[in-house]
Amino acid sequence: MVASQKPLLSVRNLKTYFPQDEGTVKAVDGASFDLFHGRTLGIVGESGCGKSITARSILRLIDRPGRIVDGEILLRRRKPPEGGGAEEVTDLTRLDPNGQDMRAIRGAEIALVFQEPMSSFSPVHTVGEQISEAIRLHQHVSRRQGRAKAIEMLRLVGVPLPEQRVDQLSNQLSGGLRQRAMIAMALSCHPTLLIADEPTTALDVTTQAQILDLMRRLQGEYGMAIMLITHDLGVIAEMTDTVVVMYLGRVVEQASVDEIFYNPQHPYTQALLRSIPRIHSNARERLASISGAVPHPYNRPPGCPFHPRCAAFMPGVCDRQEPQLRATGAQHLVSCFLYSGVKTPTTDAHR
Amino acid sequence: MNPPNGQPLLQVRDLQKFFPIRKGFWRRTVGYVRAVDGVSFDIYEGETLGLVGESGCGKTTTARCILRAIEPTRGQILFRTETGGSADMLQLSPSELRGLRRDMQMIFQDPFTSLNPRMSLLDIVGEPLLVHGMQNRREREARVAELLRLVGLRPEYMRRFPHAFSGGERQRIGIARALALHPRLVIADEPVSALDVSVQAQILNLLFDLQAALRLTYLFVAHDLSVVKHISNRVAVMYVGRMAELAMTEDLFTSPKHPYTAALLSAVPEPDPRLRSQRMVLQGEVANPAAPPSGCYFHPRCPYAIEICRTETPSWQEVTPGHLVSCHRAHDLQLNGVNRPNGATPNEGRRDPPVPDASGT
């Protein structure tokens, strides 16, 4: 897979906040990363880390009162041949979420696969109708052509007897088939970027293996970029090239998948890797747990959000200021005071 | 590790649970979902038996039948009482069953729906005590305080309500409730799958510690094989209502004898990017328990199926000591299990020892 030099999508310092009566939830608080053609970026984190909101922010699917308060989302769009074939870069944060431009992008250039296929399909329309609706929204084709394309897409994603399945309702399909149908719908307009939000969490492990296999195969054939959002480090290890680790809305570490697993630097990443159960472990082996729990978004700790649970907590430093993302190696970024040269609190640490 | 010997605490024999499928205006029974279709196994005192399988395999239904939370269609569930006798749970009268109910308790999967939001912790954890005769309020409060401390929660919290607690803390409350009556057998149905990854480890460690301190026996029902490996002495694998394999944990993982077990092990995504090996991706869908295939239920998806697999149900037999399988080809297949990788494991030896858990477990 040859990666294009220029990123397909660049997210720069994205901030999505939700002002509520009880306070403002900073769901995403300064995320930056790049996505390239033919490569997979993984976003990993636990509940409340902001990974799903990041995906929805990219697609401008944030409901009021939430809004993007800062940052840029730069998409390198493909232009139709009559425009000269040149590429142009659009900042998605500047587009009207309900405008023509954004709607042309959503579904056609950037597609989204959700976690719960059951609740993402309409229960009263057939699978075929929904797939061909997605097609006909973006291409000028007749109803018959749309249906034919839907059958073709179902076949492509490995749904057996697609000519029959196309006329079924989503609840007549098993979990695995529904997820395949969702992928078929997402890919029907050949997007350049596929965002998959926990695409296999609701599936059995053998079905998960099939779906991950399918996504890899389709990426190989179409060269699309994939942004894979999950809490499962096993899926991250299997599927991704680069990884972004998020905690309570902030990016805490970002590196190649090998670096994240073999040279994790942020205490949260390290603790997470130590605490997960592994199939290669010894039977009845105790796990190294992380004390405490992810704080409620209204109770953000001051300074670094991870400090109450951190083994390397430095009093006076970590609870006073928020660390920034800094490069500690080629393509390896960490947001932690352990790496920023601040060892002891100083009198001018008050800001 | 040797297979357990001695008397089992619980013996399940040919357990079956069929759910009728009713159709039409007159609700005629047109067929059955064979949720549990002839399951037999033993659980020994002090051990953790893991019960794994994918959705629809019948593991939760099996667990509920053991507790008689649902009534089995057929079978025997023999529980060894304190006096050493053996009671068939399915033959007991309601009052006799009540006495035994103290000995077996359940921990549920969803910490958000398994606790009544209108009951305080004292009410929730104290309810089993009240039901079984502890009328004295002060006595109950003392026992609830003791239980909360046991699971790593502060006794001062007992007047609070579930919504004030995180998922992991709620699961601890559920565990405290399950332990209130000094049970001998605890059935944990997916106790960690709804929790964040960083909290799963805490709860698993807690279950470990409680087992040692209180001499508990666990039936641990889960779909996550990595989790099951960490907590089980022995593991049983179910497929569409039937037992596929049962063995000591290490044996099952390194030398599985049933093709379905091998496929399950191969399907688990390993958190190590240097181990992206070829895996055995199963074709097809899980069989339908309302209309299962003939012979061995797994044969349509099995890469090793031969003629007899289509026509005859394999018998549940011991192929090596302590290792039971139901497969016609158990003696001649060489299946791949999970091996310890050579070279460095991710993160091994790179960091300081883990921080002790501040919650006190």
Descriptive notes:
The complex is a heterodimer of chains A (351) and B (361). In chain A, the strands form two sheets. Chain A has an eight-stranded mixed beta sheet, with helices on both faces. Chain A has a four-stranded antiparallel beta sheet with strand order 2-1-4-5. In chain A, helix 4 (127-138) packs across helix 5, helix 4 (127-138) runs parallel beside helix 7 and helix 5 packs across helix 7. Chain A is built from eleven helices and twelve strands. Chain A has helices at residues 51-58, 100-105, 117-120, 127-138, 143-156, 162-165, 175-187, 205-222, 233-239, 257-262, 267-275; strands at residues 9-20, 23-35, 40-44, 67-77, 88-91, 110-113, 193-197, 225-230, 242-247, 250-256, 326-329, 332-334. In chain A, 29% of the residues lie in helices and 23% in strands. Chain A is globular. The longest helix of chain A has 18 residues, at 205-222. Among the domains of chain A are: 117-190, no CATH class; 264-349, no CATH class. Chain A is an alpha/beta fold. Chain B is α/β, with parallel strands linked by helices and 361 residues long. Chain B folds into two domains: 7-103 and 183-341, Rossmann fold, CATH 3.40.50; 118-177, no CATH class. Chain B is built from ten helices and twelve strands. Chain B has helices at residues 59-66, 94-101, 121-131, 137-150, 167-179, 197-214, 225-231, 249-254, 259-267, 307-311, and strands at residues 8-23, 28-44, 48-52, 74-80, 86-88, 104-107, 185-189, 217-222, 234-239, 242-248, 317-320, 323-325. In chain B, the strands form two sheets. An eight-stranded mixed beta sheet of chain B has the order 6-7-8-3-9-10-12-11, sandwiched between helices. A four-stranded antiparallel beta sheet of chain B has the order 2-1-4-5. In chain B, helix 4 crosses helix 5. The longest helix of chain B has 18 residues, at 197-214. Chain B is globular, with a radius of gyration of 22 Å. Chain B starts with 7 loop residues before the first strand and ends in a 36-residue tail after the last strand. Chains A and B meet through helix 7, helix 8, helix 9, helix 10 and helix 11 of A and helix 5, helix 6, helix 7, helix 8 and helix 9 of B.
